[in-house]
Amino acid sequence: MTARRFSLPPLYVTLALGFCLAFLVVGILAPWLAPLDPNAQSLLNRLRPPLTEGHLLGTDVLGRDVLSRLIAGTRVPMVVATAAVSLSVLIGVAVGLFSGYVGGLVDTVIMRLTDAWLAFPFILLAIAFVAVLGPGLTNVIIALVVSQWAVYVRLVRGQVLSLKEREFVLSARMIGVSHLRIAVQHILPAIMPSVTIVATLEIGIVIATEASLSFLGLGVSASQPTWGAMLAEGRAYLASAWWLATIPGAAVFLVVLAVNVVGNHIRDMVDPRSAGAATKA
To answer: Model-level pTM?
Structure first.
């Protein structure tokens, strides 16, 4: 088990991790990496195919450089995924830890609310909240946090119920350690590996959901390039300008795939039994 946990990851995991790091670097440095202004229009250069001189990935229907827009569009999913997942983890862990540790009627009420929340499809909740709040980066993040927090509540609450009856927690109670200190210093560190695994896998879901919202016109403002909006603009030109939809669609697919590969590898490292179960299945 030890050799498995500390062995080098397979080649495909290394490639996926490198792709994720490249996604972060491009998102952070997007304004400096884009070769041209992503919003600069030139109708004389509209619908230029990839490998055209000065336009490596071609141009769109308004003559805007696709490569520059693809690079600039990296920032939105990066910011949305980072903010939405971080806030969802913060809220979900706090609520789940409180619910599982306190128990009783409080736990029952919180879990019934959580069950009702989880009964709705994630994407439909996000669409509904963005439709009410209106488009915009902040509103998209709020909608995704509101739609996602319940996942972490159920996960954390289940683990807290098991951990609070363990010997190390009972011993801490017997020597007079406060409940807050037990929850934060003894129980919380024990549940964070599982939370990290779920959060890593949820990043891919959030990126795909943000692209879906942008595709439907419910994402950020039209002046900000996003992969979902590029995909929506290019779907009418699939026959004549395939690159307009294919390139941003491939970007979404590869990022989500890379994040899921890394997340699955982290899960296998933390819990090797899950990898064995998956292999047998």
So the answer is: 0.88
